[in-house]
Design goal:
The protein is elongated and about 70 Å long. The protein is of the alpha/beta class. It has a single domain, classed as Rossmann fold. Helix 7 packs across helix 8. Helices cover 52% and strands 16% of the residues. The longest helix has 29 residues. The chain is built from twelve helices and eight strands.
């Protein structure tokens, strides 16, 4: 996490089920323990962050959840209302406009508007200040949608620039797009598993981000890594063995060892491929067997970041 010093925004994405929210929770805790004021934003998600942090449920209003940690589960309709109030500088005017069904239907028809309301709100929090002018949060972490939807979300500012030739919406989209491309301010973090399909999807996502959008990947997090029990030679020997069909204890042990050796080989191959095709700073997090997504597990993962 030392390469995140000075970063204002972490965009965390990856294939569904790889541990994005777990990584966000651990990163928030790690940064908070170093004295950073951290806001974690979820995108209209089935909320699990509160369980991981050991706090009450997290809704669509920003609230403190731990020392130096705030959280919010962004709801697109509410975010649209907030955006309107910010642009019009009046909640009353915004209410008059956005309570109009025709106006609301128009905004919904803008390509990517639901995604922009969530991404834009998270980005706006990086600019939010206290009355004395100091920044409210040192770091905003966005627990972004899974791979394809996460990529679509980062495409939205560019889409808006293509369709909106002027106005406040274009101004904000342009500022946000430049911000996401700035490696001094923003870091895209890809979370994956040490398996073939997640590794493939991660590499495809990285190519799309860097090639299509010119948004560099800053860090790779490989989650749920099993510690190796066997050497390469032992793995080869176990995988070469003929399966034992009987139900004896020896047969069960050999089958279990063979399966473990195969998984270790797959892990090693995935790590080698990721390192070769996506040479970025990489954090490997262990598979925690007993604790799951509990506060004790998050504290352990935070220690390793």
């Amino acid at each position: 996490m030392h390469d995140f010093q000075g970063k204002r925004f972490l965009f965390v994405t990856g294939k569904g089920g790889v541990g994005k929210t777990t990584t966000c929770a651990a990163a928030a805790l790690a940064l908070a323990q170093r004295g950073k004021r951290v806001l974690v934003c979820m995108c209209n998600a089935k909320e699990r962050l509160s369980v991981m942090l050991g706090t009450d449920g997290i809704g669509d209003e920003v609230r403190p959840v731990l020392p130096n940690v705030w959280a919010v589960n962004i709801e697109p309709e509410r975010a649209l209302d907030e955006y309107g109030a910010m642009v019009l500088r009046s909640k009353t005017l915004a209410s008059l406009l956005f309570d109009n069904q025709i106006a609301r239907a128009f905004f919904r028809a803008v390509p990517g508007m639901p995604e922009w309301t969530m991404l834009g709100k998270a980005w706006w929090h990086t600019t939010e200040t206290w009355p004395d002018g100091s920044l409210k949060y040192d770091v905003v972490i966005l627990d972004a949608p899974a791979t394809g939807h996460g990529l679509d979300m980062l495409r939205v500012p560019k889409v808006i620039l293509d369709v909106a030739k002027s106005g406040l919406l274009r101004r904000d989209a342009e500022r946000a797009y430049r911000f996401f491309q700035d490696t001094q301010e923003c870091a895209v973090v890809l979370v994956t598993l040490p398996e073939e399909m997640p590794a493939t999807e991660t590499l495809e996502l990285a190519r799309a981000l860097e090639g299509e959008l010119s948004i560099p990947v800053s860090r790779l997090v490989v989650n749920c890594m099993l510690p190796p029990l066997f050497s390469m030679e032992e793995r080869r020997a176990l995988e070469a063995m003929e399966p034992i069909s009987d139900d004896s204890p020896v047969g069960a042990v050999l089958l279990s060892s063979r399966n473990r050796a195969t998984r270790e080989r797959i892990q090693a191959e995935a790590l080698t491929r990721l390192a070769a095709e996506l040479p970025r700073p990489t954090t490997v997090l262990p598979l925690l067997f007993d604790e799951g997504a509990q506060p004790s597990a998050i504290r352990e993962l935070a220690r390793r970041l």
